[in-house]
């Protein structure tokens, strides 16, 4: 019995992938396959399941530009690569937020806060996950379709069907007759 092995850096990703989710996370970093970032990826996957990782700016930019404007992209970039790519992708509708993960917060804040979609510049991966979690809860409420319940929801475990939806039961009895 032969088994196919998936490369570690492309776990869950495919070049032709079409996600059914509204949100996707794009991670652009030259060191995206380091163990620390892999652990963080597991945490991020619990927030946004569809994650696409890039180490090359041109491939990342091309992927972002080819993504439908109906999709919503959350982007994590390293400080150095962010300075190059953010000016080219910032105006795109599908990009809703950008997070800069870097080692030198002060120097990256100088260029980063010129762009409104950059939500934060962080040096700690746990802080990054926390920030994305908080922001994503808000974004989900804004972006996802509103669900409406047309049934009355009365609190009470012991109610009978005649009390809750008596007219429906009555109409079913008439139909059966």
Characterization of this structure:
The chain starts with 22 loop residues before the first strand and ends with a helix. It has six helices and five strands. It has a five-stranded parallel sheet, with helices on both faces. α1 packs parallel to α5 and α2 (57-66) packs parallel to α3 (79-89). The protein has helices at 35-45, 57-66, 79-89, 105-112, 125-143, 161-176; strands at residues 23-28, 51-54, 72-78, 95-101, 118-122. It is elongated and about 75 Å long. The relative contact order is 0.12. The chain is an alpha/beta fold. The protein has one domain (19-143): 3-Layer(aba) Sandwich (Rossmann fold).
Question: What can be said about this structure in brief?
Answer:
The protein has 177 residues and is an alpha/beta fold. The chain has helices spanning 35-45, 57-66, 79-89, 105-112, 125-143, 161-176; strands spanning 23-28, 51-54, 72-78, 95-101, 118-122. The chain is 42% helix and 16% strand.
């Amino acid at each position: 019995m032969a088994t196919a092995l998936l490369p570690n850096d492309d776990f869950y990703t495919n070049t032709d992938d079409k996600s059914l989710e509204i949100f996707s996370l794009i991670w652009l970093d030259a060191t995206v396959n380091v163990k620390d970032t892999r652990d963080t990826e597991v945490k991020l996957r619990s927030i946004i399941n569809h994650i696409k990782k890039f180490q090359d700016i041109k491939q990342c930019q091309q992927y972002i530009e080819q993504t439908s404007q109906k999709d919503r992209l959350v982007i994590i970039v390293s400080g150095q690569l962010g300075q190059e790519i953010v000016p080219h992708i910032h105006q795109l509708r599908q990009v809703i937020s950008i997070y800069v993960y870097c080692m030198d917060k002060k120097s990256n804040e100088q260029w980063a806060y010129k762009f409104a979609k950059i939500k934060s510049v962080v040096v700690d991966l746990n802080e990054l996950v926390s920030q994305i979690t908080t922001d994503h809860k808000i974004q989900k409420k804004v972006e996802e379709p509103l669900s409406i319940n047309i049934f009355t929801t009365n609190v009470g475990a012991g109610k009978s069907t005649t009390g809750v939806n008596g007219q429906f039961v009555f109409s079913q009895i008439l139909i059966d007759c």
